Amino acid sequence: MRKAALWLGLWALPSTSVAFSLGSPICDVNVLPLIEMSPTLASPAPSGWGLRAETSYYVPGRALRVAVTQPDPNKRARGVLVFAKTSPFSGVGSFALPPNAQYQYIPPPAQCGEWSISHTNADPKTIAEMQWDYTVPLASNTVVLRAFVIEDCGLGSGGCRDQQALSNVVLLLEAIQVDGFE
Question: CA angle, corner 62, sides to 60 and 67, nearest 5?
């Protein structure tokens, strides 16, 4: 009876490998390695991953394009988490989910809202597939954007967990001039 209860309890716990293969269960990452995925980083570590916004400012209510970048056209990302914050504890804005169903908002129990998005599967993604429209609805001071990437290493599901990379930090300032007017 105890064994059955133990197995039932273990079965009911979320599987880390499934959770990360199907998307991130957390809102943001700022330190590597992400121990829940791998206690060590690959050597050499993945390099070149970045994040770019089409402008260095935002206009409240107006979408701007945000994209993961990589100078090597042959590299792919197995997983990606992109997030926007105004402080260590406050997310802001909304990423529009593309129609390809490869991305999702972070599911419960995380409380991320639409300011953080992640992949929905472990299929390798090209740079062209890692672009989103992002909107800050109201004036929110400086917005910090960042991405956490798991580089594809050619192994099966769960085999690339040590291939972790953090993008550069992108700062978006509130526009003080819109369409030529102050």
Answer: 110
Q: Quick check: 115 and 84 in contact, CB under 8 A?
A: yes
Is-contact 107 14, C-beta < 8 A? no
**pTM for this entry:** 0.82
User: Which residues, listed in sequence order, are joined to residue 82 by a DSSP beta bridge?
Assistant: 117, 147
SS3 of residue 7 by DSSP: helix
13-22, 34-43, 131-140, 150-159: which range is least confident on average?
A: 13-22
Q: Can you tell me the distance from the alpha carbon of 145 to that of 153, in angstroms, rounded to the nearest whole number?
A: 25
Q: What is the pLDDT of residue 30?
A: 82
Distance CA 70, CA 72 (A): 6
Nearest-CA neighbor of 125 among 81, 173, 91? 81
- Exposed/middle/buried for residue 66 (C-beta within 10 Å: 0-12, 13-18, 19+): buried
Query: What CA–CA distance (Å, rounded) separates 34 from 58?
Result: 30
What pLDDT, on a 0 to 100 scale, did the predictor assign at position 31?
Answer: 74
Calpha distance 82→157 (Å, rounded): 21
121-145 b/e (C-beta count within 10 Å ≥ 16 → b):
bbebbebebbebebbbeeebeebbb
